[in-house]
Amino acid sequence: MYKRILVTLDGSELAEMVIPHVEVVAEAGYSGVILLHVAPEAEALIENGVVVAYADQEAERLTMAAQHYLDRFVERLHAQGITARSLIRFGAPAAQILEAAREEDADLIAMTTHGRSGVRRLFYGSVAEEVLRGAVIPILLVRGGPSG
């Protein structure tokens, strides 16, 4: 049913709760999986007024860390016979997720929602809600945390 599933992972155990659901959908539909990690824009690291790492060096460090993180899940999916690859982007998470879905021709976005409500949701916002509002393809949202 779905040819390409874009899965968002932010490095948290909460976000990883979507993986078992994606495995079921991907196996049932012989889908390929694109694991997406969106990192914040890299900035120079400065300590005591001295540049410790320039923005491009920090971007490289963030990319390597994200790649190492995503590789675990790519290998897990490959072990189950699911085609998977990783994608790393920088910027605002919701915007990057929507752009990646478009560019990668995904036909499903899978992600975990933090399950916030009330004042906490107003204060922190919701990447899942922004993606839901902006997406033109189906979204699989897995509730990852308690409401409150």
CATH class: Alpha Beta
Average pLDDT, rounded to a whole number, is 89
Question: Which blocks of ≥5 consecutive residues have pLDDT under 50?
Answer: 119-124
Gross geometry: globular
Measured on Cα atoms, how large is the radius of gyration? 16 Å
Strand order of the largest sheet: 5-2-1-6-7
Number of domains: 1
**Class by helix and strand content?**
alpha/beta
Helical amount:
40-55%
Oligomer: single chain
Strand content: 25-35%
CATH topology: Rossmann fold
The CATH H-level homologous superfamily: HUPs
Distance between the termini: 35 Å
Number of helices: 6
Write the element-wise H/E pattern from the N-terminal end onward. EHHEEEHEHEHHE
Task: List how many beta strands DSSP finds.
Answer: 7
Biggest beta sheet summary: 5 strands, parallel
CATH architecture: 3-Layer(aba) Sandwich
How would you briefly describe this protein structure?
The protein is an alpha/beta fold and 148 residues long.
